[in-house]
Amino acid sequence: MTVVTFEIRDPGLLTTIQDRGRYGYQRYGVPVSGAMDEFALRMANLMAGNDQDAAALEATVQGPRIEFHTSTWIAVTGADMTPEVDGQPVPMWESLEIEEGSVLEFGDLRDGMRAYIAVRGGIDVPVVMGSRSTYLKGCFGGLEGRALKAGDILSTLPTEPDTALSKRLPKDYTAPVYGGTHRLRVVLGPQEHAFDSNALSRFLSSRYRVHSDSDRMGYMLDGPKIEHQEGADIVSDGNSAGAIQIHGDGIPRILLSDRGTTGGYTKIATVISVDLPGLAQALPGQSVSFRQVTVEEAQDSLREQESVIRSVARQGQLPRMSISLDDVVFAVETEDGQPITQPMPISGPSEEVLRSIGVNVDGESYDFRLSVERES
Fold it and tell me: Which domains are delineated in the chain?
């Protein structure tokens, strides 16, 4: 087994350890946290040969300088901070081989706000309430609950000896270009009834700017104020990622990774999950506007995103037997959970046999009887 170690020579502006978040503890007041751009995190992990939810580095505005003490594979995704290895430019959104002693560093910020650096094996720090994510305001998770600093030495979880990786975006999918104008799709609610038609129209037709007083907890927006019909206060309820609160001052605030778990302000709409990564890459002063979509349209967009992620996850894998149900593909596994990736021998003299396969989908069981013929 191989353990990779690397040293933070310069942490950049703000670099923390994040995974996909801390779920199951919101009822105790513990924020989810996790990567602001979850799509970029998941892709970086896959391209580095990790599970999608492995811990990686999230760098904000200015990237870190990292010296690797072990040869390994990495991937850099998200914001374009002009990454270089040993002084030579390297591509993003694909697997990168790193030699022992090599240095990864970053230059000018060209596009976006947050970059993700995944290392083969995933970063090994203590699991706190089911996650390795750093929650800075709570001072827990990640490395000692803080941002990384010069001299920090990190290691990965043990992995099998390195094999060549060659994972990249599908040919028909281009890497995100974030730009300075962000058009966000939203589903109205859950408290859209607290606003009259004029207020809703103003919200959907206005252009806002990201306020400088924005962080991982949420983005505050500069622009036209949205008036309530009666008042801003409600009985406190749960806060979801992307929820857009309208406080008594009429200013929209979009709740993000480190958001509070509950809130007592009206929520006019919610940014769909597929558009949250792009929002996480918006710099202060950049433009934000909204477009209403249906729940069904949001679900379709999520399916498209997950299809891209699955295509990267499958790269380098043997083809698996699968069953398609309502346009969703499910892998077929043996009784001990191993995927079927090659023909199974047919015992007995028969040229054709029937095999029974059970598939469980969201708690519903489906039984299939497949006819398997021996090749002549």
Answer: 5-155 (no CATH), 181-298 (2.40.100.10), 318-373 (no CATH)
